[in-house]
Write a structure and sequence with these properties.
224 residues; mainly beta; Immunoglobulin-like; 13 strands
């Protein structure tokens, strides 16, 4: 890592190229994910306390049109908004169980990135984030990303696939060797924020207890 870089994380993961596009269905046993690189985390972003019962695995793939993310999430009990239409974007979805991707395709612009959240019942929200603006989150932004989930209640695991159009993030062309900055998050469990579990792949080095700490994002490298 460059000594002058604003980024503090040394973590890296790889997005492998997929020979074909596919529609998300939440099934992570499909052949597309067999050769993906998976990373796991179960720790609080700030205290590094471990929650093995909520261990999360994440992988990524890419094509010329999309970037894909898959989550495999252990859980004890699910905490979701009940009786709502999952087709509609859900503001404050982060107050329930979610899997989250924060993606910055232009690491030189540290404070500008994109947020994607999906809940175990397939509710969702996507946001364009610019920490140099007030408000910093643009709820009107619509990526058109697709997502699907499955819940394996017998084994207490829920899975999620996201398919995000590259052009929605102003990525016109993606080449092997490209590097973005990303972080992956989980919010899990019942109760208020003092009782819920919050986890991140790349620990957050910030006095401010917020996921919105882009200098803590790790690296995702796109490989052929």
């Amino acid at each position: 890592m460059n000594a002058s870089s604003p980024y503090t994380s040394h973590l890296q993961t790889v997005a492998r190229h997929s020979s074909q596009d596919f529609a998300p269905d939440g099934n992570l046993e499909k052949s597309s994910w067999k050769n993906a690189q998976w990373v796991k985390f179960d720790h609080d972003p700030f205290t590094l306390k471990h929650f093995p019962g909520a261990e999360t695995a994440v992988a990524s793939l890419w094509t010329s049109e999309y970037v894909y993310f898959a989550f495999r999430c252990k859980y004890a009990t699910l905490n979701t908004y009940e009786g709502e239409d999952p087709a509609k974007e859900r503001w404050e979805l982060w107050n329930r169980d979610v899997a989250e991707v924060f993606a910055n395709p232009e690491p030189g612009h540290v404070n500008h990135y994109y947020e994607f959240e999906v809940a175990p019942n397939n509710q969702w929200i996507d946001l364009e984030i610019d920490l140099d603006k007030t408000p910093f989150n643009d709820a009107k932004w619509d990526s058109g990303f697709e997502h699907a989930v499955r819940v394996d209640a017998a084994n207490h695991v829920w899975t999620c696939e996201m398919r995000i159009p590259l052009r929605s993030m102003n990525v016109q062309h993606l080449e092997p060797g490209a590097e973005w900055r990303v972080n992956f998050f989980r919010a899990d469990g019942p109760g208020n924020d003092t009782k819920r579990r919050f986890m991140a792949w790349s620990p957050i080095q910030s006095a401010k207890h917020s996921f919105h700490a882009p200098t803590s994002f790790g690296v995702i490298r796109f490989e052929k």
